Amino acid sequence: VRRGGRSEAGDQPPRYLAPSTHEPIYKATDNVTNSQKKKKSITFLDQSLAATLIARSVRLHPSPQPISKAGHTTMTGATLRPDQADLPSAKSTASYWHREPSTTLLGHRTTKALPPTADVVVVGSGITGAFATKELLEQQAVKGKKKVLLLEAREVCWGATGRNGGHCQPVAYNPNTAIADFELRNYAHLAHFIAANAVPCDWVSLRGVHALLTPDLVAAAEKQIAALPPHLAGLARLVTDPEELKTLRVPNAAGAVVQERAASVWPYKLVAWIFEDLLRRFGPGSGAETQSENGWFNIQTNTPVTRLQHLPGSSGEASWVVHTDRGQVAAKKVLLASNAYTSRLLPSFADLIVPVRGQVATLLPEPRAELARSYVFMASSDASKGEPNQDDYLIQRPGPGLEMILGGGRARGTLRGVGVSDDDEVDPVVAAYLRRAGATNVDLGNEGEKEELTASYEWTGIMAFSRDGRPWVGPVPSGSVLGGGEGLWVCAGYTGHGMPQAALCGRAVAGMMVGSQGGGENTVDVPADFVVSEERAEKARALPSIKEMDDLDMFLL
């Protein structure tokens, strides 16, 4: 939901990711003809064993009954701890990006019934889930096919990816060079993927302007840019000349950073195209059903996962039971691509990945001035004037509509949105701010400009703020620190900066899961700071809480 950039501090140690040592999941054969067995050994979990595991889990841990939270309708499955994320809202605000939903994916369930087993269960269908699932299916097509089940609480791409500001803006002047390099690789990967496949998602490459409205942010940016290594130095420059600031349409800024790499995009259409393509290639009717009755890929929408149950001591067979409101699924591996909602299923992450509500509006300036750049507007808070910080982000849709998509104003909302899991309402104070800011943040070149613009869409979405500012990517170890177990993986916590990071993070975690890390053309590295570990969690917990850091403007430059 947040704009496309924020900086990270700290040196980056060399990346190290141990290759996966997980064995193939399924041992017994089923649903395979004799002729197929002769051609290829197709293995998947014995159905009677799956039934036994699920029956045992239900006896020992019956699924909790749904409850209703006061003030709104949710799909919660149990009473939550005060700091734990809720499940996604049953009724969400209408995002501009959802106005043209995929007829294939809306309400899609590949099979009428929930499959009782899967090799891998992916929870979440945003950009992380899309690229992770794509990698899982494509790599396993070579390594030996496995059944992948994607579970989504609502519709496909109905969370943060389908509710963001339409930005993809890597931060080239991030003082952490490894992260800057990774974001630029992610940007290039997306641009190439979209062009090579002619994905109709309105990707527009352009320059990005970070308008710095307070002198302290100008000083911070100047220091960061001066320290850039040669290969990054030409990708970001600081502008303080008043005349050039006017040319950039930010005459009231104290300074601005102009970045060479930025883009606007229709994020829902990108994700929807990927899932439609995967269904064509790996789902029923793709030709894959000659080896698996219903193909290798199954999507089940409107199927919230209510909890996870680990079955220790079941080496070589299903080690997880995934509980949903429609039944249970036995699986060897589970990937949580659930971002802000991660702690709902993994309570140990409640203080490491915190839901934060953001708000966005589609604005209609008249006449429609055409903007050649995307924008971020940042200002530190001023306690003496009672002014909160500013962290707004703006793109313009291509013609003929030329609508402006503006997000931000979070500091003016209730609790600044921190700890809020619900996207079923808009904050009227933030909504009014965005309509005013749309008329004043950028110079539209119109005489007698309105003090407030008309909004055609206003919506909210839930970001996932990470306590140390980095996403969490990799296997979740068992124990009291993180509460995971063998076969559980996570890829979440982008702090509102997912579009420049999530695609390659999703590919990387999938590569870890199938054991491709450690070399080869399909290897995707992530910065070492992104990798999940108990040591990292303990260091993060030594920091102030996310709410405390947010109150101190620590998520700005």
TrEMBL record:
Report the InterPro entries cross-referenced here: FAD-dep_OxRdtase, FAD/NAD-bd_sf
One annotated Gene Ontology cellular component of this protein: cytoplasm
Give the span(s) annotated as Disordered. 1-24
Residues passing through the membrane, by range: none
Write the protein's name: Fad dependent oxidoreductase
| FAD dependent oxidoreductase domain: residues covered | 119-510
Task: Tell me which species this is from.
Answer: Colletotrichum incanum
